[in-house]
Amino acid sequence: MILSSVSEFLLMAFTDTRELQLLHFGLFLGIYLAALLGNSLILTAIACNHHLHTPMYFFLLNLTLLDIGSTSTTLPKAMANSLWDTRTISYQGCAAQVLFLVFLFGGEHCLLTIMAYNCYIAICKPLHYGSLLGTRACAKMAAAAWGSGFLNAVLHTATTFSLPLCQGNAVDQFFCEIPQILRLSCSDVYLKEGWLLMFSASLTIACFVFIVVSYVKIFKAVLRMPSEEGRHKTFSTCLPHLSVVSLFVSTVITATVAYLKPLSMFLPSLDLVVSFLYAVVPPAVNPLIYSIRNKDIKAALRKLFGLPSHLKKF
After folding, report:
1. Which end of the chain has the smaller Cβ count within 10 Å, N or C?
2. pLDDT (0 to 100) of residue 136
3. Which residue ranges in the chain fall short of pLDDT 50?
4. DSSP secondary-structure letter at 162?
């Protein structure tokens, strides 16, 4: 491993105006608390309600843990920098951010793929649901999602931070991410991580294709149902997951397009907005999607707060 002489990085500042820095701190604090509260409520509702101890909600519980982790990786440091008017992050802290972000996002993508498989089995092969998605099988799938995400993160982090940095230490982002670190590296070693990124992108595309194929089969099965009420009820069970997948995929595609553009078209402000969309928005919005579109979650939350069941608007 080649050791870099860089001991710290300079993250991108949103603004030099003190009042706007405090405004950004308040905005990030509100988003962070909303994400923590929303995901924690869903996690608690699932854990405390025995009716939700099913494969679908087991995977949803894992998803909330990943969302809590991803927001906790980026926002606290961004809030501290805005509050204390600083830009620095240590070399080890930057490496830790990259490790956890790649780990959590990779695990979330694998988990969303597993949840699509769960919907497919539940709707298209209901008679085999118990045998294919038993307790042990679900635990192995969740462990595989977490494990593959961690292995992918270790490979990317080790490769990225073994590169010598020749272009200073200023990161044009409010958190550390691989594309920004690579822009600081020497051009002759850029391809070393580039091939690994292409491999990860291929796996991501394969998972996305699997999700699309699963939902094509789900839609066909739903349309063949004779009862309109049955079609609506069956489709509504998968709608929250489909919404979360759409949000996740759209933000990932936006980020990919932004980072693959030529360096001559580099716009720090655009990259800042894109990173905010894919790193901050999904973990904060996912709990809202599941709590609004899922009757079981809403019922569990009403029970958690001791509210009467006739309060349907909650």
Report:
1. N
2. 93
3. 1-3, 313-314
4. T
Which amino acid is present at 230? G
DSSP assignment letter at 16: S
Of 24, 25, 27, 12, nearest to 284 by C-alpha is: 27
Render pLDDT for 232-266 as a digit per residue (tens, 0 to 9).
777 777 778 888 888 877 777 766 665 555 555 55
What domains are defined for the chain?
Answer: 8-304 (1.20.1070.10)
Closest CA relative to residue 82, chosen from 32, 126, 19: 19
The Cα 86–Cα 4 span in angstroms is 23
Nearest to 122 by CA among 241, 228, 300: 241
C-alpha 158/C-alpha 149 separation (Å) is 14
Q: Whole-angstrom distance between the N-terminal and C-terminal Cα of the chain? A: 55
d(CA 236, CA 246): 15
* Separation CA 310–CA 302 (nearest Å): 10
pLDDT of residue 223: 83
> φ, ψ for residue 185 (rounded to 5)?
-85, 170
Query: To the nearest 5 percent, what fractions of the chain are helix, strand and coil?
Result: 80, 5, 20
